[in-house]
Q: What sequence folds into this?
């Protein structure tokens, strides 16, 4: 009973978030990896907290209220930092799911440890830890991820301005929760009321932004690809830019640049098509040509060289969503090869 009450609520909450994601932005394999990362984060946080408590002679109250929130939200947030910095998060929905998955893994490990330390604890403790503390851990890490994704989309400087606001909020909420300004039962009730409302609003906003991005992006990519195939790309601003750099590169390199543009557009359309099918409830079939396309993409990038790719940056000035779709597409057709890892990260 203790294990069920202590572990199941946060995992059920996570499954509910995944089911609400109509575009299936976060694959199940990644969710499991993030849960495992949360478990590892809990183990590391336990060691750090113990070391700090011994080195600084901290009393338990100070440790729980002030030091532990700083340590634990820093370690959990580091996973989110890596995901967003590597552009593995495209929208607010997958930021929320990824952050909550890390927090859920952390909470599950923490509650298992508590069961070992306090095997005879009263059922009331597990109600508070299972429905309150565990979901709080998932919620604050999800909030950190949502905030970081929001600031990352606005391109506000480097990593610190992007992640600092969400991290400060996570630490403040965690610390406040550990102060028990109100009774544990009221805190648990507040968590169960506030978090679903927050996630509902985030999912509504993100779904709207995803639909808008898919609509405008699909039409723009399709129109430009048609011009490339018909040989009329020179009539576009992109064609004019390629014409301006022609004198600095050989005709072969310029031809490879156009081929690279075509290939990226094809992959972009394929990725957007997958999301549209998922939203409609269909299961896209694996594309056997994807592997070859990423191999060709890698070859073209190597042929063009660093200088040529730098010259193409004004054309390939992709947003985080545009870069994310290549990671999503590369992972949708089986294990990544080195070529696909390099191409999807370029």
A:
């Amino acid at each position: 009973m203790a294990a069920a009450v202590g572990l199941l609520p946060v995992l059920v909450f996570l499954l509910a978030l995944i089911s609400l994601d109509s575009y299936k932005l976060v694959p199940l394999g990644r969710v499991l990896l993030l849960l495992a990362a949360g478990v590892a984060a809990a183990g590391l946080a336990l060691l750090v907290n113990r070391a700090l408590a011994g080195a600084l002679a901290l009393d338990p109250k100070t440790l729980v209220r002030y030091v532990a929130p700083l340590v634990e939200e820093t370690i959990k947030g580091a996973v989110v930092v890596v995901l967003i910095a590597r552009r593995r998060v495209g929208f607010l929905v997958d930021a929320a799911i990824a952050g909550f998955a890390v927090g859920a893994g952390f909470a599950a490990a923490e509650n298992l440890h508590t069961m070992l330390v306090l095997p005879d604890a009263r059922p009331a403790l597990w109600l508070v830890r299972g429905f309150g503390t565990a979901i709080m851990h998932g919620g604050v890490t999800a909030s950190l991820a949502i905030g970081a994704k929001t600031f990352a989309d606005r391109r506000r400087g480097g990593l610190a301005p992007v992640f600092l606001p969400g991290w400060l909020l996570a630490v403040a909420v965690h610390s406040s929760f550990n102060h028990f300004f109100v009774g544990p039962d009221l805190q648990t009730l507040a968590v169960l009321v506030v978090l679903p409302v927050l996630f509902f609003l985030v999912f509504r906003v993100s779904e709207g932004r995803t639909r808008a991005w898919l609509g405008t992006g699909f039409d723009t990519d399709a129109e430009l690809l048609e011009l490339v195939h018909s040989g009329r790309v020179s009539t576009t601003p992109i064609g004019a830019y390629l014409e301006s750099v022609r004198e600095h590169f050989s005709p072969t390199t310029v031809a490879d640049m156009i081929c690279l543009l075509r290939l990226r557009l094809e992959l972009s359309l394929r990725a957007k098509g997958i999301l549209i099918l998922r939203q409609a409830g269909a299961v896209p079939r694996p594309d056997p040509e994807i592997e070859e396309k990423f191999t060709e993409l890698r070859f073209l990038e190597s042929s063009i060289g660093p200088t040529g790719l730098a010259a193409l940056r004004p054309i390939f000035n992709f947003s985080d969503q545009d870069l994310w779709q290549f990671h999503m597409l590369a992972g949708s057709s089986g294990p990544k090869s080195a070529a696909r890892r390099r191409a999807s990260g370029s």
